[in-house]
## 1
Amino acid sequence: INARNNVCIYVQLCRPTMVKICKMKSVSEFKPDPYVATVLNCMMWTFYGLPFVQPDSLLVITINGAGLVMELVYVVIFFIFATSPVRKRITIAMVIEVIFMAVVVFCTLYFLHTTKQRSMLVGILCIIFNIIMYASPLTVMALVIKTKSVKYMPFFLSLANFMNGAIWIVYACLKFDLYILIPNALGCLSGTIQFILYALYYKTTNWSDDDEDKEKSNLNAEIELSQA
């Protein structure tokens, strides 16, 4: 039940950004980086929670398995409404992630024969990619500081990442699992920094330029058609 509730919270918090993209029929200045990074992160953690890697980790499998499905949906939405250069970036990133994941699975199962060895290797990789996932909004943070606007740093995504990190910290403390504790502590720190940026730049944000976004989307579409 806790796993299901955690997933539902994440869906509700991230949905507004996706609804806005669908309404505008454009990703505008929104970045796909957090979603693409989270796909690999969810794949790694789902693999980590399997019984032959880390026994008794059912919650890790269910939450991250569901998260993987949702993130793939978000990436598909981004891909549909993105410009050609962004689509190319997403495609390259996803192909690299799938190949890398296949290599990790093969090496783990073929060369390591105990759950302790497997959980150590996959756990270290999970830490690395969990940190990358939480650091992926840095590209958006740079845009926020440059434009003094938080319009393209979705608040609900920041809140979801912060809450996700906080909940996993509690779980890691109960399970005494450092592989889960370390990256999610950094995730909470990343979320806190994003909240600070919101407090600093919320008042200077122009929220009334959606029409400009639509015009920009139409212009990008015309450019793509002229290049076709």
Note: The chain has two domains: 1-111, 115-227.
## 2
Amino acid sequence: SSTMSFSEAEVQSARGAWEKMYVDAEDNGATVLVRMFTEHPDTKSYFSHFKGMDSAEEMKQSDQVRGHGKRVFTAINDMVQHLDNSEAFLGIVNPLGKKHATQLKVDPKNFRIICDIILQLMEEKFGGDCKASFEKVTNEICTHLNNVYKEAGW
């Protein structure tokens, strides 16, 4: 398994950037998911209870969307806390990837989509430096999730 190579400075700036987003985890998480569903409507098919929802406003208010958005943000938050510990990081990424690959059968390209939307929202809210300091983290997350998928025979 590949180890991660974050300098102490990179870890600190990534955590600082992420903290700004995580303060409003539920709201930002819901915004990210609603954007994904709106810009990539095929992703709604994984969530049976969102199928009938067409308006972004309706989705944004949905308890299911808010709940899942918060779960996504909580998982990323756990990973961000362990950027300096590959073993702990993979201890979060591996079961998450396995569940999405085997039980939920989610196409792994959707992880990249979510990460790109998170980066986009970061830039809108907090500027380009904030986004830049978190880009390496999203690449790392997507790379490791894709590895889990390969191992699961996706």
Note: Residues 20 and 126 are 8 Å apart (CA to CA).
## 3
Amino acid sequence: QIRGSRARALPDRALVNCQYSSATFSTGERKRRPHGDRKSCEMGLQLRQTFEAAILTQLHPRSQIDIYVQVLQADGGTYAACVNAATLAVLDAGIPMRDFVCACSAGFVDSTALADLSHVEEAAGGPQLALALLPASGQIALLEMDARLHEDHLEQVLEAAARAARDVHTLLDRVVRQHVREASILLGD
């Protein structure tokens, strides 16, 4: 069901609503961030764009899919962690998707492409890339870079992020299959 105004309801597909929040104690800086700050709004928009590319919204017209993400501890790669956790939640809720959405961050630090950047590596100020991938098709759901990077290094950083996202897919797929097996046993199927 649509929360709020019915005018927002889409007649041909579901509306995907994503909200991101971060606990005040999630980072070392203890900065109070109200629920509508720029970072939260931007992250919510990125998550919505990512999941609109993966969820089969046309199967649920005139409805709304809400994804709420709250970060309790942030040590880099926040977007990727949110995407991977939300993917598991969407799958567990039984919402049909084209594919898993797997994400990873990458950067270029000391002339080396690194995947899954920590807070210290992010704070170093080098170029960073966030990648959300639909691994089965190889489609990119979201790609964002927050600093300049020479084009000679872009492919190297992009490949590091894509390889890590495919590794995340392997792990998530194994966990989901194990969960389904255990649920089938409990239900006696």
Note: The chain has one domain: 15-187.
## 4
Amino acid sequence: WNATELEAAYYGAGGGSPPLLVGLTLIQSAAAKGAVCLDGSLPGYHLHRGYGSEANSWVVNLEGGGWCNDIKSCVYRKRSHHGSSYFMEKQLQFTGILSDKPDENPDFYNWNRVKIRYCDGASFLGEGYNKAAGLYFRGQRIWLAAMEELMSNGMHYANQALLSGCSAGGLATIQHCDEFRALFPRNTKVKCLADAGMFLDVVDVAGGHTMRSFFGGVVSLQGA
């Protein structure tokens, strides 16, 4: 079972109230900027508005999901929700740091909470195009288009903002933290939380540099 199925089984068995379901919003302005997923489809995000004392506080979570480091893996990826918005869930469960339940998420439950979907395969960093395979490497443009969209939707007025992500999203958080800080006035409290986002360039158990080789492929292929 995947995480969604496990959560459904848990809540269905009386484990508590069901998690919040938040609809997918496609970034319509992204097409004109060339800010598209691997297959050329529009990128998207899920947003649940904050309220009360934290109506001007924002959590932006960058979705994780690995990387593609060669043409074959990227072509495979573009036929999934990690490479195309055509395959993304129309609704996503907001749990953990995105939950709306005070007992589960006491620090952020009433903040504006955003999940930005990951569909470029290079931690929102690539810039390029492979015509033969029909692959768009536009992670950096997706990042910029998503930030522009959120700023126009009220994030510009944030009193405090937190950029977060796990795994590939955690690496994206590290890479984009300074850019995120630069979006806001100096008096806005801005922080970044990279969850499992650091991948060390060290010799592995087989005596090689697997991570160096893998990320080298991502960088050279996608222009990150």
Note: The beta strands are 20-26, 44-48, 57-62, 91-94, 112-116, 128-130, 135-137, 160-166, 189-195.
